[in-house]
Structures are given as structure tokens and as C-alpha cells.
Design brief:
Its main location: membrane. This is Major facilitator superfamily associated domain-containing protein. Belongs to the major facilitator superfamily. MFSD6 family. The chain is mainly alpha-helical. The chain has 17 helices and 7 strands. Strands 1, 2, 3, 4, 5, 6 and 7 form a 7-stranded antiparallel beta sheet that branches. The radius of gyration is 35 Å and the shape is globular.
Length: 551
């Protein structure tokens, strides 16, 4: 820099390079700030938080729910039924609840109730377990016995009553493997396995074979209720793979009925949550670019991936059970109460966030159906009827507070009002729907003739017009299903849904069969959602460059 303030023309000064570097850094920060401002609108932050918390709760439990059921002794068929019936209930009940919420204009109330029901019924799944029949153990044996344990047929194994608090130290838990199962249904991926009763030993059988020294006789006195294998029918005892707990097939079937009832009622009451929020977000972002709606849902993928990753790390270190019935769990058994606890925390945050939503509807916030309920309650409790101001629900008061209304008109209106009674909300609703509600109380007779509100009046015409409009819309919608393009699209969607459902339900089941750990489950989930987020940002550019197929 020259002393007069002019820059040198031959060489660039170090200060000039610093200024350029600082300006480039500031431009970069400004670009990042603009990107963050564009993708994270403050007015939509509450929706992003809801999606993050809700799908974090979902991702921390439901991808692993089939493995949890597998650990309880449920079969793959039963796990598939529990997973598939959830989506079937969603498909059937969601339109009903959403239509009801829109008709009653109570979207926020329906949303909060559905989240509470989802949290309550889902947490109930964590406390429903079949009572164990016993524990599979290896019997204590004498060290001076010449034979090896492999040569002692049937001697090493037995079933004892749950012995968590037993003081006998020589008992050792045995994990269920395919070598201990019957040949029936002993395939890859099959769980639970039928325990082979012939491999179990009891005291009389050992004495008859001369193996009395193999099993120490004090075992039968110190371990209560030693279970003789002769008390069980072949194929009546099952064990989850790599577990030490023995279950009865009858008790597992009973628990399956309880679980399916919890899933049915829980999903029936909680299914409208996400569709209500999706409709609200779509309404808020309808005047903005279409990708803005997807940006809000993208936060759900972020929450799902992060929650599943950390849950996988936590499950690898959660092999301790507070109420495990046997002395030692299997080396692949995990305490899935960690998942239920994490689910409840994230769902509580989602519930709190949902209280900040504001559902807007055309017309009044309170529907005529709720006004009718209020009239019934007032008539029953107070003995009187709440009067209405002769307005329908969505009717605007255009003449109210009009300064141009003359005194003559005011006088004529007051005289005409004296000649007829003010109808109640119930009467207005009857005229609007064109039906009689069947009230048993005797109505106050009007001075005007009864034919004033005949079926030919405007209320009846409005009802007929509304019904005709609905029929026309349904017929128009059904005509779309005659298009081959739409039918092909629906078939592809249905076919892809079958594949996605199977992967979602049994992917981690299969990975566990391949000796995969919960941490591997979390890493796989993170990779899945990273690819989903990347494709969200670059799919439009790829489609524009490659092109798309138009039917």
C-alpha cells in the first residue's frame, strides 16, 4: 500500500491477498446461510422437529420388532402377520379417521389422541412375554469319569425350573442350536426350534444305563422341581435359536393372541397421525416449490437413521436382563427394553411438538355436529335449548353492521321475526341434511305454516346437490381406474410394496442368522437413509439429464 493510499500496480501486497481470502470465506458463509435459510424455514421448523422425533421413535423400535418377537419364541409366520396386519389396518382405517377429523374440524385433537394411543399400546408390547417352561442346562458330572460327554448319550442335558436364584454353581446354561432340534422345520431361518426330547435325561434313565456317577445325585435335591422329559410330548417344547429358555408352544400361541390384539387396537387408534401431519404440511407448503414438502419429510429419514445407529450400538452392550428367568442369557439375546424406552422418549417429544400445530378450516372452527351435542346436553341438564342466530355453519353474515340499512327495513325485519320462532341448531341441521333426527320432545309450534320448511326448500335442495356432487366425483374417480397407465402404476406400486414389506420385516432376521450384530443393523440403516437423502437432492437433475418414460 502506497503512502498516498494507491495500490501498487506491479506486485500484489499481502494485505490484498488477505482481503480476497476473507471475501471468499464470507461469500462461502453467505452461501451456506442462504442454503440453510432456504431449506430450514423458521415457520416450518416445528414440522421438521415433529418428523425428526416421530421417525426417530419409529426407527428405534419397529425395524427390530421382528427380532424381538423372534426372541420371545414367535415364528416367522406370526411375525409376518403382526407386521402385515399393521399396514392393513392403516389402509382401512386412515381414510375414516381423516374424514371424521375434517368433518368435525378437530384435526389437532385427533392427532394428539392418536400419538398417545400409539405410545401406550406400543409400550404394552414390551411387557407381554410368555411364561417359561424351564431352562436348558448341562448337568454336572464327575471329573474322574472315563467317558467323554459326547459318548454319554442323553446324559448332559436337562430342563429345570427357572433357576435364576439357584445357589448350585455347577449348572451351566446351554444355548439352543440346530443340533438339539427335531428334524421337522429345522431349516435356515427357522425359529423357534422344536427341542428334541430324546436328548434330555432324567434320574431313573441314568441309573438304568449305569451313568449314576455322571450326574451328581445332590443335583436333584438342591435344584427344585427337576423336570423329567417324560412329562412332555414330542414337539411340545420350543426354544428360540441361541436362547437358553424353554417355552411351551401352547403358551406362545396364547401370547400371540394378546400381542395381535394390542397391535390391532393400537394401530386402529394411532393410524391418522402421519396423514394428518402430511396434509397440514402440504397445505402450508402449497404456495411454495413442490420440493419444500419433501424437505420436511427428509428430516424423518435423518431421525430414523441416527436413532437406529445409536440403538444398534446400545444393543451390543445390553446383554444384561433384570428379570431373565435363567442364569445366563444366550450370546445373541439382547434386552430390547432399551428400544421401548427410546421409543417412548422420542414419541413424547413428538407429542409435545404436535401441540404447537395449528389446523385451519374453512368457516367456523366448530361444526354443527358439536353444536347439536351441546344442545342435547343443555336440554338434558338445564332443561333448555341453546338458541342459534339463524346461521348455518359456513354462512357469512354479510348484512351485519351495515350502516345503509334503513329504519323501515329494521322495522319490517323485527315484525317478521315476531311471527316466527328462532330455529335451534337441531332444526338447522335437519334442514341442511334433509332428514329428521327423531327428537322425542315436542317442538314449539311456529306461527308460520309447517310447510315453510318442506323438503322442497333450500336446505333440501342443498342436500340433494351435495349428494349429487359426491356421486359425480366418485364416478369421475372410478373412470381413472379404466386407464391402463394407472392400472400399471398401481400394480407396480403393489408389487414393490410386497418386496419392501418383506425386506423391512425380515432383513435383520436374516442378518442375525448370518451372525450379524445390532451395530451392523445400525450401519446398514444409516447407509440406506444416506442414499435416500442423496437421491432426494439429485434425482431431479438425473431425471432431467437422462429423461423419463411417458406413457
Amino acid at each position: 500500500m502506497h503512502k498516498f493510499g494507491f495500490l501498487s500496480t506491479d506486485t500484489a501486497s499481502p494485505n490484498d491477498e488477505d482481503v480476497q481470502r476473507r471475501s471468499s470465506i464470507s461469500d462461502g458463509k453467505r452461501n451456506w446461510a442462504d442454503w440453510i435459510k432456504m431449506h430450514f424455514d423458521r415457520s416450518l421448523l416445528v414440522f421438521q422437529l415433529f418428523y425428526f422425533f416421530f421417525y426417530a421413535a419409529f426407527g428405534s423400535l419397529f425395524p427390530l420388532i421382528s427380532i424381538y418377537f423372534k426372541q420371545l419364541g414367535l415364528s416367522a409366520f406370526q411375525c409376518g402377520v403382526l407386521s402385515g396386519i399393521r399396514y392393513l389396518i392403516d389402509w382401512l382405517a386412515t381414510p375414516f379417521w381423516n374424514a371424521l377429523a375434517e368433518k368435525w374440524k378437530k384435526g389437532k385433537s385427533f392427532l394428539i389422541i392418536s400419538l398417545v394411543c400409539s405410545m401406550s399400546f406400543t409400550l404394552g408390547l414390551g411387557f407381554v412375554r410368555p411364561s417359561p417352561e424351564g431352562c436348558l442346562v448341562r448337568l454336572p458330572y464327575s471329573l474322574d469319569y472315563n467317558e467323554t460327554l459326547d459318548n454319554v448319550v442323553g446324559a448332559p442335558l436337562a430342563i429345570v425350573e427357572p433357576y435364576r436364584f439357584s445357589t448350585y454353581d455347577n449348572l451351566k446354561s446351554v444355548d439352543m442350536t440346530r443340533d438339539l432340534a427335531l428334524n421337522i422345520k429345522n431349516k435356515i431361518g427357522q425359529s423357534p426350534l422344536y427341542l428334541d426330547i430324546k436328548l434330555l435325561a432324567d434320574n431313573p434313565k441314568l441309573k438304568a444305563k449305569g451313568y449314576g456317577r455322571v450326574v451328581e445325585q445332590k443335583f436333584y435335591s438342591k435344584v427344585p422341581n427337576f423336570r423329567s422329559p417324560t412329562h412332555y410330548a414330542p414337539g411340545s417344547l420350543v426354544m428360540p435359536l441361541y436362547s437358553t429358555v424353554v417355552y411351551s408352544q401352547t403358551k406362545i400361541n396364547q401370547i400371540f393372541i394378546i400381542i395381535i390384539l394390542l397391535v390391532l387396537f393400537g394401530e386402529l387408534l394411532s393410524c391418522p397421525a402421519i396423514p394428518l401431519v402430511d396434509a397440514l404440511v402440504a397445505l402450508k407448503t402449497s404456495v411454495q416449490p413442490t420440493s419444500l414438502y419433501g424437505q420436511q419429510r427428509m428430516m424423518g429419514s435423518v431421525g430414523w437413521g441416527l436413532a437406529m445407529f445409536f440403538i444398534g450400538l446400545a444393543l451390543d452392550n445390553s446383554s444384561v436382563f433384570q428379570d431373565y428367568p435363567c442364569l445366563q442369557p444366550g450370546y445373541r439375546e439382547r434386552n430390547y427394553l432399551v428400544c421401548f424406552a427410546t421409543y417412548s422418549v422420542f414419541m413424547a417429544f413428538a407429542l409435545f411438538t404436535s401441540t404447537q400445530f395449528s389446523f385451519t378450516y374453512e368457516g367456523g372452527q366448530e361444526s354443527m355436529y358439536f353444536k347439536l351435542v351441546k344442545d342435547k346436553m343443555a336440554k338434558t341438564l338445564l332443561g333448555r335449548t341453546t338458541k342459534n342466530r339463524s346461521k348455518l355453519v359456513n354462512e357469512e353474515d354479510s348484512d351485519e353492521d351495515d350502516p345503509n340499512v334503513t329504519k323501515h327495513n329494521m322495522t319490517s325485519i323485527s315484525e317478521s321475526e315476531q311471527n316466527k320462532t328462532i330455529p335451534t341448531n337441531e332444526e338447522i341441521l335437519e334442514r341442511q341434511l334433509g332428514i329428521k333426527l327423531g327428537s322425542k320432545e315436542k317442538r314449539v309450534e311456529s306461527k308460520e305454516p309447517e310447510t315453510e320448511y318442506s323438503p322442497a326448500d333450500s336446505g333440501q335442495e342443498s342436500f340433494v346437490a351435495t349428494a349429487h356432487l359426491k356421486i359425480t366425483k366418485c364416478a369421475k374417480a372410478m373412470r381413472y381406474f379404466a386407464k391402463p397407465q394407472l392400472l400399471l402404476f398401481l400394480f407396480v406400486t403393489w408389487f414393490m410394496g410386497m418386496g419392501v414389506g418383506q425386506v423391512f420385516t425380515f432383513l435383520f432376521w436374516h442378518m442375525q442368522e448370518l451372525n450379524g450384530s445390532p451395530t451392523l443393523f445400525g450401519v446398514a440403516t444409516v447407509i440406506n437413509h444416506i442414499s435416500e437423502i442423496v437421491m432426494f437432492f439429485f434425482s431431479k437433475q438425473i431425471i432431467d439429464k437422462i429423461g423419463k418414460l411417458l406413457f
